[in-house]
Amino acid sequence: MSEKPKKELTKSQMLSKKITDEYMDEAFRAKEEGRIICYTTAISPVEILVAHDIIPIYPENHSVANLTAKKGAQMCSYVEGLGYSSHLCAYARCDLAYRATGFTVTRGIPEPDMFLACNAQCFTLTKWFEVLSRRGGGLPLFVFDTPQYIRDKRAREEIVKYCVLQLKELISLLEEVTKRKFDYDRLREVVKYSAEASILYRKFLDMARYIPSPISIFDALIGMAITVYRRGTPQCVEYYKTLCEEIQEKVDKGIGVLPKEKERFRLYWENLPIWFKFSDHARLLGSYGGVILTSLYVHAWSFEFDLNKDPLYTLSENYVSRFSNVTLEDRIDMALDLFQRYSLNGMLMFMNRSCKAVSFAVPTLKDILTKKTGIPALVFESDMGDQRFYSETQIRTRIEAYFETLERLGLAKNPA
Amino acid sequence: MWESMSLGEIIECASDPYPSMREWKRKSNKKVIGTTFADVPEEVIQAFDMLPTTIMGTHKPLKKAQALLPDNACSLARSNLELVLSYETDLFDGFVLPQVCDTTQHLSDIWRINLKGKYFESYLAPRQTDRESAKYWVRKEIERLIDSLSNFAQRGIKREDLEYSVEVHNENKRLLREIYSFKNDNPSSVSNRELFSMIKLSQQIDKVEFNQTLKKVRDTLKRGTRDGYTDVVLAGITCDPLEIYDLFDEIKLNVVADNLLVGSRYIQGEVDPGEDLIQKLTERHFKRGFFSPIHGSVFAEFQEIKRLYQENNAKAVIYVHIEFCESQEYDLPDLKKMAKEEGIPMHVIETEYQTTSLSHIRTRLQAFFESIRGV
Ligand code: SF4
Ligand code: SF4
Questions:
Q1: Residue B116 half-sphere exposure, CB side, CA atoms within 13 Å?
Q2: Cα separation of A216 and B276, whole Å?
């Protein structure tokens, strides 16, 4: 049997690989170089860690690698045997299984010296990090507490002040742990890189507005990795420049994920992806002329840092206002903005058992979005990482029926 | 109406306080403000001459909440939402909802959107308690709550209003503490069910009136015995339904200490006297013990339980788990492990609003305590 020819990597893919390899090499060298490893949440003011030469490690990303490799059910059921319930976040379950067994499809991640949990994302990570902190005998855990960014101007000002105060406390803790003075000029530089990378990242995501769209959410999910773990570095800026150029080239040539005449359903996705079905879903939807273009999740890293403001202030404003920490009304407005800008005509609303932080709003979000856009939604429940909660036939049938409904309502873009 | 209740009436009212609250509202013409767990400064609401009441779920059937929440939402959240949407909607003039975990944060949005037209405020107390900024933030939130209630009530509050309210709440806690301590030595005179019904009702009905009842209860307490009773520590967030206490009584368990929200964590919340009452309310926030979703020291829960167990010379710890409470579910495996390492017998009770099986709990409790007592 002849081997499938390997697809040549694009320039951005090669760069992504290089950045990731260098990052992990650096992380694994950290201990011998006397550097601190801080586990943190994907949404957290990591710029402060980077500015202080602390290496941020994201256990969520490590879990994604294992879940994408379809190891979820195996790892999750292992920790259930240790007493953890089956409806906790699959990232956490997967990570706790890694701690207990050492099993991983990657080279693993180095052990932590401390933790930074930002609850603008969820409070699950605080609880999960508490477990890891205890495991390390009580390693320092800093909770960056971001109260919900409620719709009240004065309250928002106060919330940001509270967040700034906490960032100062974080800096004091880092100074204490490393016995080194924090360098605010270095922080300004790091925030500048983050700001540049964020603008480019958003530009990349927004290319999904073209018809046909040159990227799907699956490209966005792959493309987002570097900003998640390397923001605040010049490499991150370089990566997104390269990526934007590549995608722009596709736009210029009119190359879409699907050819223009076949692109019939431009879809919104609510929630995190089902990692172990990543490519299967792209193929399945594509066969019906469907392409998922965006979600609020991938936009969670499109920050708008204002370099004219105090860096602690602009960091606070940005982190506290992520989609997962605003009110439902604001989240609806954010989603509607995507519907309008990306000319969406369908929505897949995933109730993710793993992630209550994002899933709680789904039924209400769906009702209101449907009412405001006139587009019906497909709501389905499963788990982002644990295959035991996924039913292939049920999802296939429902997707098929959903596209038929859109068709019947005259919402499809190109006639079949 | 709540000034002179018998122990039997206390038990009955604690099981379903809403009919009497309706009557009270009709007679007093005062507003009722619902809150949920935990830490909303009730004194502030009462200072506006409104009734602060903590909503603690319903055991009536679910009708609407299921369609609005994920299947694995914690049963307390589901039950609370059902109560306000289907059963007691009219009773409440408004809500002050604290956000302590992902569930309560996102639930408060759903609650607001589905109960339009009612007063609504979020109480965003810090989810960390180990740093100075938390103190700053509690004070800011209390001040914001006062502003918000002033807008709603169309009036401010005077210092005397707050002072009086604080005194009423403090008295309530002192009375409960006295009764609790008496019960510890005389479990045959005051049952677990009676005590915890008093604590629950204290968080739900008018304390000015209920304190009268508590005084009478205290003054008429009769010495009993603790012979044949096994002293236990009760841990968790809340222990619901109250019938679980009947099971404790039935098998002669004496809850001598606890860290429940509907328990000692409430009683601990006395406010110290002082010039600056808002500052005193702020300081009180940090006097209370462990609450699972709020981050403090990572060993706090175990240390607290161990201390209660040792200081009270208890024979076991009973931990009440609320089905689908993620927060507890991250704590529990380590807690069990640490208890085992320290040789502390610990028994976990599973509860779920609407579906708790009392007979199952009874069988497991009996088996556990038979082994402890060496029967
Ligand atoms: S998937 Fe949800 S619950 Fe899990 S870590 Fe991410 S935001 Fe938190
Ligand atoms: S702390 Fe637990 S029981 Fe309380 S609302 Fe949150 S999930 Fe539910």
A1: 1
A2: 58
What are the chain B neighbours of A360 within 8 Å (beta carbons)? 69-70, 73, 102-103, 106-107, 110
Q: What is the rounded distance in angstroms from the CA atom of residue B68 to the CA atom of residue A297? A: 21
One digit per residue, the tens of pLDDT, for chain A of length 416 reads 445 566 789 999 999 999 999 999 999 999 999 999 999 999 999 999 999 999 999 999 999 999 999 999 999 999 999 999 998 999 999 999 999 999 999 999 999 999 999 999 999 999 999 999 999 999 999 999 999 999 999 999 999 999 999 999 999 999 999 999 999 999 999 999 999 999 999 999 999 999 999 999 999 999 999 999 999 999 999 999 999 999 999 999 999 999 999 999 999 999 998 998 878 888 999 999 999 999 999 999 999 999 999 999 999 999 999 999 999 999 999 999 999 999 999 999 999 999 998 999 999 999 999 999 999 999 999 999 999 999 888 888 999 999 999 999 999 987 66
Q: Please tell me if residue B307 touches chain A, with a CB cutoff of 8 Å.
A: no
Does the CB atom of residue A121 touch ligand 1 within 6 A? yes
CA B332 to chain centre: 20
Where residue A195 sits, what CATH number does that domain have? 3.40.50.11900
Q: Which residue has the tokens 């005397």?
A: B160
Q: Could you list the residue range(s) of the whole structural domain that residue A25 is in?
A: 11-408
B70·A127 Cβ contact <8 A: no
- Chain B segment 66-105 residues within 8 A of A by beta carbon are 67-73, 99, 101-103, 105
Q: What is the ipTM of this complex?
A: 0.96
Q: How many whole angstroms from A122 Cα to the centroid of ligand 1? A: 6
Q: Does domain B7-155 bear CATH number 3.40.50.11890? A: yes
Looking at the domain assignment, is residue A362 inside a domain? yes
d(CA B347, CA B232): 10
Closest partner residue to B103 (CB to CB) among A150, A159, A360 is A360
Q: How far is the CA of B76 from the centre of ligand 2 (A)?
A: 7
Number of structural domains found in chain A: 1
**In this complex, which of B102, B127, B336 lies closest to A124 when CB atoms are compared?**
B102
Amino acid (1-letter code) at residue A96: L
B237 CB within 8 Å of a chain A CB: no
Residue A2 lies in a domain: no
Tell me, yes or no, whether A335 lies in a domain. yes
Q: Name every residue whose Cβ is closer than 8 Å to that of residue A26 and which is 6 or more positions away in sequence.
A: A55
Domain assignment present for residue A5? The answer is: no
Flag whether residue A69 sits within 8 Å of chain B, measured between CB atoms. no
Q: Cβ of A147 under 8 Å from any chain B Cβ?
A: yes
A160: left (phi over 0), alpha (psi -120 to 50) or beta: alpha
Distance between CA A290 and CA A285 in Å, rounded?
5
> Is there a contact between A395 and A382 (Cβ–Cβ < 8 Å)?
yes
**B residues 119..148 contacting A (CB < 8 A):** 122, 124, 126-128, 131-134, 136-137, 140, 144
Residue burial B90-120, b: 16+ Cβ < 10 Å; e: rest: ebbbbbbbbbbbbbbbbbbbbbbbebeeebb
| Tokens describing residue B146 | 């006062």
Please name the residue whose Cα sits nearest to atom 6 of ligand 1.
Answer: A355
